[in-house]
């Protein structure tokens, strides 16, 4: 056994080291799990976004898949289930993702200026965004087109 090779003092140091090493490892695992549960800050990678939007995993994102994700996003933002997304709901969701342009985005989407977004406004914004991303106009998005979302564009705020 290991006791035959170690003095009582060395054995005590080994046990203490294992105990504290286990404590540190446990703390690191808990911290990692907590961070994973919160999700990463900031926008997802283009690849992760593409995978999430490509519902049928056929390698392209159709307008219907894009619209379906937009509808699901609207439902997540509408935290009080009122059928509209208030400025507070919209900015809260964007703060979670670590983005800082929520106010300008909200203003662009709120076409009637009433301070809330309805499904139609969100859908219209999503369709306009899809059209901007669909660079070749074929009615579907590729990973390369999604990656263009991350490139700086003229006139973008």
Concise description?
This protein is 59% helix and 6% strand. The protein has 157 residues and is mostly helical.
| Strand line-up of the largest beta sheet | 1-4
Q: How far is the first residue's CA from the last residue's CA? A: 68 Å
Largest sheet: 2 strands, antiparallel
Order of helices and strands: HHEHEHHEHEH
Q: Kindly provide the radius of gyration, computed on alpha-carbon positions and rounded to a whole number of angstroms.
A: 24 Å
List segments where confidence is low: pLDDT < 50 over at least 5 consecutive residues: 26-40, 152-157
Strand fraction equals: 5-15%
Q: What would you say the CATH architecture of the largest domain is? A: Orthogonal Bundle
CATH class category label of the largest domain: Mainly Alpha
What's the CATH topology label of the largest domain?
Recoverin, domain 1
- The CATH homology group name of the largest domain: EF-hand
Number of domains: 2
Helices and strands: which structural class? mainly alpha
Global morphology: extended
Average of pLDDT: 77
Number of DSSP E strands: 4
User: In terms of quaternary structure, what is this?
Assistant: single chain
Helix content: 55-70%
SS element count, helices: 7
Structure, explained:
With 157 residues, the chain is mainly alpha-helical. It has two domains: 2-38; 46-150, Recoverin, domain 1 (Orthogonal Bundle). The protein is 59% helix and 6% strand. It has seven helices and four strands, in the order ααβαβααβαβα. It has helices at residues 8-38, 46-53, 63-77, 87-97, 102-109, 119-133, 143-147, and strands spanning 61-62, 84-86, 116-118, 140-141. A two-stranded antiparallel sheet has the order 1-4. The model is unreliable at 26-40 and 152-157 (pLDDT under 50).
